[in-house]
Amino acid sequence: ERSFLLLGNQGVGKNKIVDRICQIANFEREYIQLHRDSTIGQLTLSPSLEDGRIVWKDSPLVRAVMEGRSLVIDEADKAPLDVVCVLKSLVEDGELLLADGRRILRDGCGEGIIPIHPDFTVWVLANRPGWPFHGNDFFKEVGDCFSSHVIPNPDRASEVDLLRKYAPTVETSTLQKIAASFSELREMSDRGDISYPYSTREAVSVVKHLEAHPEEGIESALRNILDIDSFDSRLFSRIGDVFRRNGLSLPYSFVELVTINNDGELSIEYVGKREAEGVSNSPPDLGSPKVGKWDDANDPHVGGNQWAGGTGGSDTAGLGGRGGPYRLDRGHKVHQVSDEAKSMVSKEAAEAAREIARKALQERLAEIGMSETEFSMYDTFMESIKADIADLRGTLNLVESKKSERDWIKRQNHGEIDDSRLVDGVAGDKYVYKRRGESRAGGGLRHPKRLRFVMDCSGSMYRFNGHDERLNRCLEATTLVMESFDGMERRFDYSIVGHSGDSKCIPFVEFGHPPKNPKDRLRILQRMVAHSQFCISGDNTLPAMAQAIVDVEGPGFGEENNADECIVIGVSDANLARYGIHPRELGKIMKSSANGAKVYCVFIASFGAEAESITRELPIGQGFVCMQTSDLPRVLRHILTSQIG
Fold it and tell me: Domain named ATPase dynein-related AAA: which ranges (predicted)?
């Protein structure tokens, strides 16, 4: 038999390629799509209930084996590893035992034996592992059994030619702009700046719409695939900038106005769209700015003008609205009004809002004991990394549990036959199936992820800050962590320690006690600078990392009431050679966890190529060189998302 593996991002045309090959070669095709709850039984046999009887039918895999057809297995990276191993047994060993007792054999005959037809061909399609697909590493597990091929997106010229086939009447210049825009979006995805890897599939969708409905224009065609990202105003604005740079018009994001009518039904309208599109609805009329009423129940308020902490409304303190005095986040999804809607706020109302904000700031500073000078200092320091904080917070919101609870949900009208309800099925009950799904008792993160950040506060950070701003980057990295994880205590439990020539463990943030306000965060930064300025020379990187592994796991790690997973991240300059420390010593410590804690090192400064040399000696994928603070969200995204199992 012949076996092929096609690896590539979604939407690059893997299915199209296989279909075309089957068409040219006149192959009959069987198709099966896997998912995270696929089982070995589903892969080989398909039970169904017919006239009160359970009938087992051959699956597409078995039919392809028997008849010599091409079997296309799609989304193979989504399947559990035990299902993947079944494919390996079939392809490599030419043997597979079915649930009904029959056996597939490459060379065999006799009762209960299904010989593999000489024309049987396997085509396995899989996305690449890791972010954002979160699938298994299919190539790592069974790639050696297949003839493997990587399917990239087409080059620019080829993509334009492809788009022209789908939209022959659309101007070539427009096709070129579309291809250039999607190419740039893919580059952003590869860098980790956006999560979704916009592919040729989306570009084809746009031009097909233009071909079929030329009167609607490019904006309408783009919205068909981009509207899902309009709920994140910052992401949508970034995507829109790409299209505008390439000469295509795309409006800024708009907000959904959610209301509940008298019948209790949810109504969703879009606000902030341009009048030229025939949409005149808008956020609530503007009035006088105010803080708004406080909702003790903390219900989400969208598009209103009465409640503090709402989103997408008018006049009140909240997020994403217009005319309010200041930002107030109560933990709800943000709905962003358009720039056009914001421009309607009068100068008088804007000044009144600023005055309310100034008074609120004075009250807040007095409450936390922070002077205006200190606040200004922290705010200035924060200004350069606000975008990075927003990026990392977006990533943290997407991180899932490594130990998410999935169980069999019974009494379903579709899925697998539930053996415990066979009698009910014979009696005519339709709800005799079961399927895998999230357990109601424990979906999501049952326990927080536990992270220990180990920051370098040694004398070299202060000494060479004037040379390459390494201490500034360390402080920015610390601020990035504290601000990004703020309010996410139920999902992430983190601590921050430092090390210097004086100590292997200088506590800055304890587990379960994150800094509560800007004053607390500023004090931590000031302490870090002081330790770096006044500590003795020396390096405690190795004992600091070893201690961090012990502390992050804690006593009783792995028991029911402990962390979802444990991660240690060291942030340091690459200054090991000066103290006679070989990188392999650090690598050995990074692999020393007895309980599976993952350990990483991020180097933010280097003399020459020492940082790159160190990372080459560390465990693969656990060392990073990050010379710009703006790269840190990307590194942390890789670290956090690579843990999703």
Answer: 4-108
Helix, strand, or coil (residue 509): strand
- Cα-Cα-Cα-Cα torsion 14, 41, 438, 72, nearest 10 degrees, comes to 10
Taking phi over 0 as left and psi of -120 to 50 as alpha, with beta for the rest, 418 belongs to beta
Show the 3-state SS of 362-422.
HHHHHHHCCCHHHHHHHHHHHHCCHHHHHHHHHHHHHCCCCCCCEEEEEEECCCEECHHHH
Q: Can you tell me the distance from the alpha carbon of 75 to that of 59, in angstroms, rounded to the nearest whole number? A: 17
Only one residue has tokens 């297949």, namely: 146
Which stretches of the chain score pLDDT less than 70? 1, 130-135, 230-231, 233, 251-285, 365, 368, 398-408, 419, 436-446, 555-563, 641-645
Extract the tokens encoding 17.
């390629």
The pLDDT value recorded for residue 403 is 46
In terms of Cα–Cα distance, which of 97, 90, 103 is closest to 41? Answer: 97
Q: What is the pLDDT of residue 285?
A: 66
Q: Positive or negative CA dihedral for 454, 507, 630, 610?
A: negative
Q: Which of 17, 34, 18, 41 is nearest to 76 (CA)?
A: 34
HEC assignment per residue over 414-430:
CCEECHHHHHHHHCCCC
Do 138 and 5 touch, CB atoms closer than 8 A?
A: yes
One-letter amino acid for residue 601 of the chain: C
Q: Residue 260 forms beta bridges with which residues? A: 266
Residue the block writes with tokens 């809607």: 341
CA–CA separation, 623 and 618 (whole Å): 6
Give the per-residue pLDDT at 135: 67
pLDDT of residue 257: 44
- Domains of the chain in sequence order: 3-150 (3.40.50.300), 161-246 (no CATH), 408-437 (no CATH), 449-644 (3.40.50.410)
Sort 369 into a burial class: Cβ within 10 Å, 0-12 / 13-18 / 19+: exposed
Contact 623, 615 (CB under 8 A): yes
Task: Write the pLDDT tens digit of every residue in 27-71.
Answer: 999 999 888 778 777 788 777 777 777 777 888 999 999 999 999
Say which DSSP state 150 is in.
E
121-126 sheet: strands from edge to edge? 29-33, 70-74, 121-126, 2-7, 147-150
Name the one residue in this structure whose structure tokens are 């490459």: 106
Q: Which long-range contacts (CB under 8 A, 24 or more apart) does 17-21 make?
A: 17/151, 18/70, 18/72, 18/123, 18/125
Q: What is the largest CA-CA distance in the chain?
A: 91
pLDDT recorded at residue 278? 41
- CA atoms in the 13 A half-sphere facing the CB of 55: 8
In angstroms, how far is CA 89 from the centroid of its own chain? 33
* 531 and 502 Cβ atoms separated by less than 8 Å: yes
Q: How many CA atoms lie within 13 A of 192 on its CB side?
A: 20
* Residues 6+ positions from 17 with CB-CB distance below 8 Å: 6, 151
Cis peptide before 132 (omega within 30 of 0): yes
10 Å Cβ neighbour count for 71?
24
